[in-house]
Amino acid sequence: MKMIKVMEKRKTIREFKDAALSANIMNHVRETIAGIPQLIETASVEIGILQDGSSVYKALDGLVGYHGIMIKAPHYLVMLCEDKDENFIATGHAGEWLSLELTKIDLGSCWLQTASKSDLVKEKLGIQSELVVASILAFGEPKGGARLSRIYDASGDHSASPLTKFGYPYIDASYKDESKSDRLSISEIVYNKTFGNTMSLDEIEQLGFEEVFFYMRFAPSWGNLQPWRFVLQPDRLILAMKRNEVLEAHTGLIDAGIAMLYLDSAMKSKGFSGEWTVGKIECAENAGIPEDHWIAGCYRF
């Protein structure tokens, strides 16, 4: 299954079934964690499974959450890193890659903000570490009709869900995703050579990047603010993130890492090769990035 189709259908899940996932699925999650690709060689992210979701929920309710509300889930993933910008960006990249992999087997997930209260979170969860709790990812089987299996290469009704191999029954393949009309248009997020120099969709299409940005737009962001903007230059794409004085800085860094994952996945799916240089502002010195944005990195191709 192509990652770009998973990106298109991935959605934040805020209601989960109470039942714990099977041992087979949890083993699959552990194996998936071990295979997370690295965005930055010098920035490591530690990810652990919090198996007893009920205890985690009780410990953190009222302390952290999604828009301040703790999400109840059968399991959680805790992500720890050093308190450095590039490590938080790497956390966003790693956590969202994992979320997409969970989506492939019909599991839902939800990012929870924790970084500003890391010490309290570690105390509540009994975590002995000098690292920062960058974020927590709630995950499990979506509740009710929030099923995701339409993203798979199903040939029609009664096609098997990816969870079938783990002992789950068939899942309806006719699930229709929610509208994406709240997404910014491609022309609103891509500039030509310098920031603010807008491009028409025809111009972007002529350069072969229309589908790349179509899929990149599905990157989740805090409050769906979609803070990412791209400056397209002959040999690179520059990622600029809109500053938000209300949000904690860690949130924007994690959003940048997520955006980098979606852009890279979309580029590679369309036959472009390239890689990210993270946090090197000199790569964007001629792009005219305004002060109300910060430079997350450059994608050279």
Automatic annotation (TrEMBL):
Domain of life: Bacteria
GO molecular function: oxidoreductase activity
Cofactor (UniProt): FMN
Putative nitroreductase TM1586 domain segment(s): 3-262
A Pfam family the protein falls into: TM1586_NiRdase
Keywords: Flavoprotein, FMN, Oxidoreductase
Family to which this protein belongs: Belongs to the nitroreductase family.
Protein name stated in the entry: Nitroreductase family
Organism: Acidaminobacter hydrogenoformans DSM 2784
